[in-house]
Amino acid sequence: MSALRNGRNVTLISPRRMGKTGLIHHTFHLIKGKDKNVSCYYVDLYQTDSFASLVRQLANAVLGTLDTRETKVMKSVAAFFKSLRPTLSLDPITGEPSFSVDLQPQTAEHSLTEIFQYLEQSGRQCYIAFDEFQSIEGYDDKNVEALLRSYIQRLSSVHFVFSGSQRHLLEEMFASAARPFFQSTQMMPLKEIAEESYYSFAKDKFKGHGQQLTEDGFHTVYTLLHGHTWYVQMVLNRLYESYDPVITPAIVSQTIQVITEESEATYQTFLRLITPFQRRLLRAIASEGSVKEVLGKDFLMKYHLGAPSTVRSAVKSLVDKELLLDQNDSYEVYDRFFGIWLARER
User: Any idea what DSSP says for residue 345?
Assistant: First the structure.
């Protein structure tokens, strides 16, 4: 909130399911609660495949916040966004009006100009979050980064959060002197919630539900799942619905086993999609929980993995497939439940 209010754009980086999207929405909620003269827009780029689809998503986010009940608003919007051709439709169930846009790829750049001009002239401070921003790396369109940067650096009333889960791509985008966004944002990694704070929060929730979450029980959850928010929350939710009066490490372990067994068919599919050697490597890392020296002699010999060059190639492939998580100083199985299942199935 401090960065955005003081005109600093932010690059928010963390693995998937750590809580980036929830943090963005919560931050926007707090900003709007403190200042009514702001507008916040969340744009998910995960499903986009071109510059035109990015602009379309942004247009839908901006138009979706407008009050469409007034005829004059509809007319002014249509007049302002000439290249977008906004159309009004009614929800067949609720009867609520909503805007959608018909955008042609050849007009995408002009449409982006119109959107940013509209936001700049709105008389409000505007905050835009582009989630999974690294998706633009996969566009066939050329120079999308340079084009976006050329617009963004001229804006005075619009500030941005660039969020994503592929750390290497985002660090290359924002920390490389050869890239358009070089040092244009405040880099902000989102790490695990501290165990003590997380336990205090969870303990109070269970207490209000008539259950006792023991410190050892929570420590077991947190440690096995490396503090990864979504996975911890999944287990806590199952424990919460169990109504067990006292949550012990034994109950936690039983609950996690049930969860992993439910997804066993999915995990078997994951294994069929990779090579036998990649399966061996993935199981070895799962057995260790976390491996710092993945090319180290001790690790290679313990699991009979052979030449470092072969392991290096397999690691890169597994990271690209998001089956392995590169934590800068260590490697871990990305899906925490999958890692537990792999270690158990050895």
Answer: H
